[in-house]
């Protein structure tokens, strides 16, 4: 992935270089230093923050893969995830959804859904998936906790995405 650690000048409502915002009228943030979030990056100087809102809207960020991901092939990558207790009122715990798409911002297949991210320190998550069709884009989306009956304000911090590789089979 290009700019896999979301490096850039820390600022709110800004998409890091090499990434695409997919939700209308909302963009992620490059952190730390805005919205009361001061967690240090797990790798490099900055990272991305995405949120959910009480009105049911959410943020996502996407990128075209360097090579298409082939149907029926197992792939894996890892990334660091955390949440912040002090994201300017967006302090709920949410989950990450990773979608694969054939075109820009297209959600063809849900490839991964984390549990609710409850850690304020960075934890590495291994993500493994097998596309059902050829995919060219990955979308990283803020997701609500399905066990809650209402929408709510929440946040997710993302950093340090490893290269996408074929799965190791033992």
Average pLDDT level: 95
Class, according to the CATH hierarchy? Mainly Beta
CATH topology term: Jelly Rolls
Number of helical segments? Answer: 0
Question: How much helicity do the residues have?
Answer: under 10%
The stretches of 5 or more residues where confidence is low (pLDDT under 50) are none
Name the beta content range. 35-45%
Secondary-structure content class: mainly beta
Order of helices and strands: EEEEEEEEEEEE
Counted beta strands = 12
Largest sheet: 7 strands, mixed
How many separate domains make up the residues? 1
Helix-strand blueprint:
Layout: E1 20-21, E2 29-31, E3 47-52, E4 60-69, E5 75-82, E6 92-93, E7 95-101, E8 109-113, E9 123-129, E10 135-143, E11 154-159, E12 165-166
Parallel strand pairs: 6-11
Antiparallel strand pairs: 1-4, 2-3, 3-11, 4-10, 5-9, 5-11, 5-12, 7-8, 7-10
């Amino acid at each position: 992935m290009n700019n896999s650690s979301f490096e850039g000048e820390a600022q709110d409502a800004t998409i890091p270089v090499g990434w695409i915002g997919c939700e209308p009228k909302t963009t992620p943030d490059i952190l730390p230093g805005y919205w009361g979030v001061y967690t240090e990056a797990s790798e490099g100087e900055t990272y991305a923050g995405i949120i959910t809102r009480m009105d049911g809207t959410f943020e996502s960020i996407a990128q075209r893969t360097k090579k298409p991901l082939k149907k029926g092939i197992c792939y894996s990558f890892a990334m660091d995830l955390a949440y912040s207790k002090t994201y300017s009122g967006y302090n709920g715990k949410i989950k990450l959804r990773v979608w694969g798409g054939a075109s820009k911002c297209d959600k063809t297949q849900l490839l991964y859904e984390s549990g609710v991210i409850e850690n304020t320190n960075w934890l590495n998550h291994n993500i493994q998936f097998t596309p059902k069709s050829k995919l060219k884009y990955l979308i990283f989306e803020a997701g609500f906790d399905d066990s809650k009956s209402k929408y709510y304000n929440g946040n997710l911090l993302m950093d340090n995405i490893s290269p996408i590789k074929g799965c190791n089979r033992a």
